[in-house]
Amino acid sequence: MTVIKLRRCADGKTISDKEKDSMKALSPVDQLFLWLEKRQQPMHVGGLQLFQFPDDAGPKYVSELAEQMREYSSPVAPFNQKLTRRLGQYYWTEDKQFDIDHHLRHEALPKPGRIRELLSLVSAEHSNLMDRERPLWEAHLIEGIRGRQFALYTKIHHSVVDGISAMRLGMRALSADPEERNLPPVWAYQPKKRGRSLPSNPVDVASSLARLTAGISKQAATVPGLAREIYKVSQKAKKDENYVSIFQAPDTILNKSITGSRRFAAQSYSLSRLKVLAKAFGCTVNTVVLAMCGHALREYLISQHALPDEPLIAMVPMSLRQDDSAEGNQIGMILANLGTHICDPGNRIRVIHNSIEEAKQRFAQMSPEEILNFTALTMAPTGLNLLTGLAPKWRAFNVVISNVPGPKEPLYWNGARLKGMYPVSIALDRIALNITLTSYVDQLEFGLIACRRTLPSMQRLLDYLEQSIRELEIAAGIK
């Protein structure tokens, strides 16, 4: 006869030794995302995938697809894991009462079924906190979109995956073969040993802040060199108005307290157009993207009568890897001058380019530990405010702008072509706007998430982004 021993926990519940062995403690980083979560600050990431119907799709195609997806009611990890708390520590444990109907939602847009209605639905769903008594993910299959299209919006808590992992998960169930069928949904997909992969790169400020606490013993030895570098930065900032140092970011409406309501905006832009601009200005596509964002933010703040005299500063996660190795994180958080105080688009992109190149040159002279420490100092004010709210005027940057490389080939889901994939990230208190983009084939897919009340009519940024491309083309003599 098997004897099951029970242990009583601080909350009065009992667990068996067998259950205790199956529990997996969350790392301090993952627990941080649970501690940071408040009603006005949901801590989940998401993605919106837009698909074109297969040619042979019937009138009930999406309904039938929903029924097929619902049959996969036994998810694999991490989709079958729910939170439990013992003695102040969070653990993952398997949900023995998993209910697929709670996690999979089949919805239809109201008429006329434009992209506007789709983005409104995503905005509303991304505003909602998830039930911590269940696995922390949802999938929304959405029909009723004009032009024989349907969408899949998924969200998953940041304690389960980071942004780049979420993108990998979203791509698991896709195929490069338009003829392949019977592909399971992402929560039932058994990962293969080798598959489609993306480069390691943080895509949001929350992940970056949490990871900065690692490797403290190695970092201690960098303090003398770091002190010299900080002094050099502060001195140079006094002489060059376009040089970015710590605490230079101005006070803007982007950096006010936020509510729990979100607005999501998304748009695709031609990657080939941006490559032509990058060549014309002698810079990278990333620099062109920052110039687009600088123009868009300048125009938006002017429309709100809120443009500061000083330039906005963007925090830009940037890979510093100079080899083909895959080990370790070689990431720097660059503070980029967005040139929002400059009217001329040609001058603005040159200021942005110089700002980025100076940051790269600075990091090129540092060891990985020094880069991590320098980045930690840069992010410290934001981390302090997120955790305590004690120093709202200590500000290193105004906005987060992340660019994550994506798939270079067209992808399909059971014959439906993926037309676009848009990141849905996290808005944080006093960082009310997050701009995340990813590449897909010959497109750059922008996903903007913001506090609806703090930044009214934020969707106008999409028009200003397109406007910025035209103005850069004129400045470069292309048009």
UniProtKB/TrEMBL annotation:
| Gene3D superfamilies named in the record | Chloramphenicol acetyltransferase-like domain (3.30.559.10), Nonribosomal peptide synthetase, condensation domain (3.30.559.30)
Domain O-acyltransferase WSD1-like N-terminal stretches: 26-289
Q: Its annotated pathway?
A: Lipid metabolism; Glycerolipid metabolism; triacylglycerol biosynthesis
Q: What class of enzyme is it?
A: transferase
The protein's superkingdom reads: Bacteria
Keyword ATP-binding carried by entry: no
Output one GO MF annotation. diacylglycerol O-acyltransferase activity
Q: Which residue windows are coiled coil?
A: none
Name the family: Belongs to the long-chain O-acyltransferase family.
| Descriptive protein name | diacylglycerol O-acyltransferase
Lineage per the UniProt record: Bacteria, Pseudomonadati, Pseudomonadota, Gammaproteobacteria, Oceanospirillales
